[in-house]
Amino acid sequence: MTEADLMLLDGDPELVSDDLLQNFAWHQSGCFDEDEYRNAWRRLAYRVVQVLEDDPNIALAEGMMLARPLTWPEDERAALRAQLTDALRRAAGDEERWPALEALFQAAARLDESLTPWLRLVDTFPDEVVTYLAGSWASAVQCTTEGDYGYTLDWEDPTPGEEMREWLFRPALRDRLSEMDSEAAQDVYLQIDWFAEEFSTR
Predict the structure, then answer these.
(1) Is the bond preceding 13 in cis, omega lying within 30 degrees of 0?
(2) Please, are residues 59 and 29 in contact by the beta-carbon 8 Å criterion?
(3) Residues 40-65: tens digit of each pLDDT
(4) d(CA 141, CA 5)
């Protein structure tokens, strides 16, 4: 990253190109000291979300946790939370954009270092979206030895895997899936039911 790039990143976020923003996000903290990196993320996070909507690459938000978002002013976090909520709702409302939900969801979870508030948002989505996400997440968690979720998500008490398994194994989700009149929902219901039983014996 050049000196000119660093000067642009230190200026008006609207003047930072998408390519430079992606370079910043992928570079993580190597070109900055700790405070500079945190402040850069505070300025640029809303632009990263804008890029994520068009280019749903999970890696774009990986650096956010290094910038310690729990230490950001609450008004900034609230604004970013609202932006991510709107982005997730837009993606949920367009079946062609459902694959973008994963990158947006993980970015949102990094902001709070918790899946739980964002899983509550998912609960408000239409049945078809919940079916899609539950099936995708069950498959992802099921394939790991410890039932983990999000290999670059890193927090404790509870861990991302524990939060995700709690959501997947809730009776409320399985009841909702079982009551849906779709083959896909029934398949996901059976998948989660089997996974819950299998995981309990690990």
Answers:
(1) no
(2) no
(3) 899 999 999 999 998 898 888 888 88
(4) 39
Query: Looking at residues 161-185, what average pLDDT do you find?
Result: 96
Report the pLDDT averaged over residues 64-83.
93
Distance CA 45, CA 28 (A): 13
Asked if 163 contacts 119 with a C-beta cutoff of 8 angstroms, the reply is yes
Amino acid 37 reads Y
Q: Does the predicted TM-score (pTM) go above 0.85?
A: yes
Q: What angle do CA 166, 144, 198 make, to 5 degrees?
A: 60
Interatomic CA distance for residues 35 and 63, integer angstroms: 14
C-beta separation of 22 from 61 below 8 A: no
- The tokens of 72 are what? 């950001």
Angle, vertex CA 172, rays to CA 193 and CA 146, nearest 5: 45
Secondary structure letter of residue 110 according to DSSP = H
Place of tokens 């998912």: 122
Contacts (Cβ under 8 Å, ≥6 apart) of 13: 43, 44, 46, 47
